[in-house]
Amino acid sequence: MLNVIRAESNGIPAGDRGLAYGDGLFETIHMRGRKAVLRAFHLDRMVADAGRLDIPVQRAELDAGITQAGVDQAVAFQSEDWVLKLILTRGSGGRGYRPPENSRPNLIVFASPMPPIPDSAGVVAELSRFPLTVNPQLAGMKTLNRLEQVMASREFTGREFELIMSDTAGNLVEGTRTNLFIRLGNEWFTPPVECLAVAGVMRRYLMECLGSAGYCVHEENLPPAMLSSENFRGLYLANSVVGIVPVRKLGGVDLPVEGGIETICDPLKTLE
Amino acid sequence: MLNVIRAESNGIPAGDRGLAYGDGLFETIHMRGRKAVLRAFHLDRMVADAGRLDIPVQRAELDAGITQAGVDQAVAFQSEDWVLKLILTRGSGGRGYRPPENSRPNLIVFASPMPPIPDSAGVVAELSRFPLTVNPQLAGMKTLNRLEQVMASREFTGREFELIMSDTAGNLVEGTRTNLFIRLGNEWFTPPVECLAVAGVMRRYLMECLGSAGYCVHEENLPPAMLSSENFRGLYLANSVVGIVPVRKLGGVDLPVEGGIETICDPLKTLE
User: Mind listing the pLDDT tens digit for each residue in A198-214?
Assistant: First the structure.
């Protein structure tokens, strides 16, 4: 049974394992009034990752948490766009790192205004100097262990929308808060889940939309040379709050930007 | 200026970045009454690692936190041994992963009884199946990003004292909560800091004690073949609460155990 904590009114128990070890997960959900964008995708991911971490939670409990948050914020945000953040922790207890046999997870619920949405003409990005390492057993999960993204984010100067992180071999892997897609000719490329710190729900949705539109999507490493390939047509950032955003300049170099992605992939269609 | 929170009486603000991202550090200190074992070593590490993460904290503030915890627990533990845990987080605020420019860190103070100290005749350990990956920029720091240790700890069956984790190349790296030392002849080996998830204070103290006693200590990778080397004399676990413990059996195989380490290295000498 989940213990639901409203962030604006309650503190977190000091012994929570989310604080102690990052022993938990989070989701950041684009809301419009009481409805959630990509609701099923967020639920799918949190349930699957909780299973991988062995945090006992039911999909219906998380679903009820989203519904209740919509009710709680109905006056504050009405039919506007806002952001719902859910943190799911294993709860308290255990002997040091070892989890307790019967934990009661905490679900902490945060509501915040929608951030500014970037220009569809594209954003500026830089390459982060902070390398990304991924434990194969934790790959793709949106866990609370996010110090690499925090440390990379210290490089933000205010002039760029995103910092793109590379693995130790130099492949482009992901932005601090976005997944990457590259278009070469009529084919699309994105790194495979086993190389990712976070496999975003917008990544999954875009892959499905591209597939439905007849495009081939390859899950492959992205060496930076792809960006100077003759048939390179664009680099995109995907994130559940800002959607799909083209990059018009990376590391000072102009990149081609094409329109039309919004006709292939409109996440607002998934409102529920 | 640090915000000190006593864990037994106060909750943590839901927006704390320690919970959100594991954006912080911790120390686990062996106390005897009001005095701390390896006090200067714990302070050195937390101050150095806070500097690496750019969390603004003064050594004197942390030192005062230890002193105050000793005063607060004077009735509960008197002159007994107990464990003081300090969690230092960056505090609240910032834009997503990006830290705020002026953060006010939280220091959360936990007191707990001393765990049972293992038999000096040696302990049983097993090899963990969970691989350890280390980001070179975060190596050695006792940060709040500890999901790898949590996941490895799920393999505990109750029959072993420790689970030893290996890197993806198969080298022995560290226990879930201990650093490793191997003795070959009269020389000692321990993995270098850049390969470690946590560079323990007891590791540093043992290296200094061994050096003072005239031994050569090599910071090198530990391939498992070292354990079957002809001049292998012992495998030791080092941890600031339990001290230095020989392993008498690893993965079902008996290992040689020698006495005498306590005459080389007595952390209680450092009480202050």
Answer: 999 999 999 999 999 99
With tokens 């008498």, the residue in question is B248
N-term to C-term CA, chain A: 25
| Alpha carbon distance B209, B269 (integer Å) | 11
What CA–CA distance (Å, rounded) separates A151 from B115? Answer: 34
Q: Which of A89, A147, A156 sits opposite B145 (nearest CB)?
A: A147
| ipTM, two decimals | 0.96
Comparing alpha-carbon positions, the chain B residue that sits nearest to A17 is: B19
Alpha helices per DSSP H over A166-256: 201-212
Over residues B21-30, the pLDDT tens digits come to: 999 999 999 9
Fold of the B123-265 domain: D-amino Acid Aminotransferase; Chain A, domain 2 (3.20.10)
Residues of chain B with C-beta less than 8 angstroms from the C-beta of A56: none
Architecture of domain B3-113: 2-Layer Sandwich (3.30)
What distance in Å separates the CA atoms of residue B201 and residue B145, rounded to the nearest whole number?
Answer: 18
* Per-residue b or e along A26-42, where b marks 16 or more CB atoms closer than 10 Å to that residue's CB: bbbbbbbebbbbbbebb
Residue A243 has a CB neighbour count (10 Å cut-off) of 23
Q: In this complex, do A97 and B11 lie within 8 Å of one another by their Cβ atoms?
A: no
* CB atoms A137 and B130 under 8 Å: yes
The superfamily CATH assigns to domain A123-270 is: D-amino Acid Aminotransferase, subunit A, domain 2 (3.20.10.10)
